[in-house]
């Protein structure tokens, strides 16, 4: 198979990647047939999957605007993915041109494409690192150069924690990240779950079985396990809720994309949890 210029040398093109499958759901062009095939199988198990992803992106944009509205202009976006439309740096820097954004991902395509998109943007950077190694992220060049951890930061863990297994103790990794943040910082999170929305547990199991064929299997979790990621933080209103329910009236800044109102009409977009917590 011909390797396109955006695909770094050395990546295994025979194994689907969660980052490229997500790009496929969102209608992007940074994916291979192996990713599209996995995406199609997952959509067969639950046809509303692309709507969930749109609701996730729309929540992410609203949460970023909310953070800037609270005066937070520093963003650490871990599991940031392959840039698509309405990216965090675009939303944040449109709301406040001084905003600084550090993207972190362990997927080579996500990192390479982010680097290309960010060229010439001195207030944004991408770090190749793993969420399960928070020390590497905090000690990275990008974080050291762009973020002042003595001031509030919005830590974004959006649609990423469900790609970590219980045995890797993602709660400990997130606790380490929370500890590094200044008071007033925000934790912005979404997580797959069959506890809310119309996805039946057996449909969830089928979707998860597709992801077992990737390097980052999917782990849907019950509400209580998701809530633990916010330990010690105060959940902002309206709490841990389905994505379209989180402050649907905020503009999400996505010209052409579905707004929260439109997404609220589709029950599929209610699968999974979204929340924003604040460090006291
Ligand atoms: C579904 S995408 C979400 C992208 C973006 N946060 C969003 O919500 O639109 C999940 C991303 O998390 C990344 N990811 C998964 N496990 C990771 C880990 N342990 N460390 C860093 N990134 C990870 C994947 O490579 C992928 O790009």
Automatic annotation (TrEMBL):
Listed CDD domains = AdoMet_MTases
Pfam families cross-referenced by the UniProt entry:
Methyltransf_19
Record region (Disordered): 244-280
Q: Which UniProt keywords apply?
A: Methyltransferase, Transferase
One example of the protein's molecular function in GO is: methyltransferase activity
Domain of life the protein comes from? Bacteria
Instruction: Supply one GO BP term.
Output: methylation
Keyword Repressor in annotation: no
Q: Write the protein's name.
A: SAM-dependent methyltransferase
Organism, as annotated = Streptomyces stramineus
Organism classification, top ranks? Answer: Bacteria, Bacillati, Actinomycetota, Actinomycetes, Kitasatosporales
């Amino acid at each position: 198979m011909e390797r396109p210029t955006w695909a770094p040398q050395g990546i295994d093109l025979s194994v689907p990647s969660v980052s490229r499958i997500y790009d496929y759901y969102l209608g992007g062009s940074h994916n291979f047939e192996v990713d599209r095939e996995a995406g199609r199988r997952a959509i067969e198990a639950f046809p509303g999957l692309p709507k969930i992803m749109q609701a996730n992106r729309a929540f992410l944009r609203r949460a970023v605007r909310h953070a800037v509205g609270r005066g937070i202009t520093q963003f650490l976006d871990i599991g940031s993915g392959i840039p698509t439309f309405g990216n965090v740096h675009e939303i944040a820097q449109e709301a406040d041109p001084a905003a600084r954004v550090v993207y972190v991902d362990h997927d080579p395509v996500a990192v390479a494409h982010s680097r290309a998109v960010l060229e010439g943007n001195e207030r944004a950077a991408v770090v190749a690192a793993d969420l399960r190694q928070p020390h590497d992220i905090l000690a990275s060049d990008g974080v050291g150069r762009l973020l002042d951890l003595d001031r509030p930061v919005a830590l974004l863990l959006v649609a990423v924690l469900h790609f970590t297994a219980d045995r890797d103790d993602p709660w400990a990794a997130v606790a380490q990240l929370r500890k590094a943040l200044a008071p007033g910082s925000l934790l912005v999170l979404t997580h797959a779950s069959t506890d809310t929305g119309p996805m039946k547990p057996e449909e969830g199991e089928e979707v998860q079985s597709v992801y077992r064929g990737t390097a980052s299997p999917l782990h849907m979790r019950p509400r209580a396990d998701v809530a633990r990621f916010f330990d010690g933080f105060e959940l902002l209103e309206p709490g841990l809720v389905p994505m379209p329910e989180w402050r649907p009236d905020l503009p999400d800044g996505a010209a052409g994309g579905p707004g929260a109102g439109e997404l609220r009409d589709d029950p599929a977009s209610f699968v999974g949890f979204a929340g924003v917590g604040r460090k006291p």
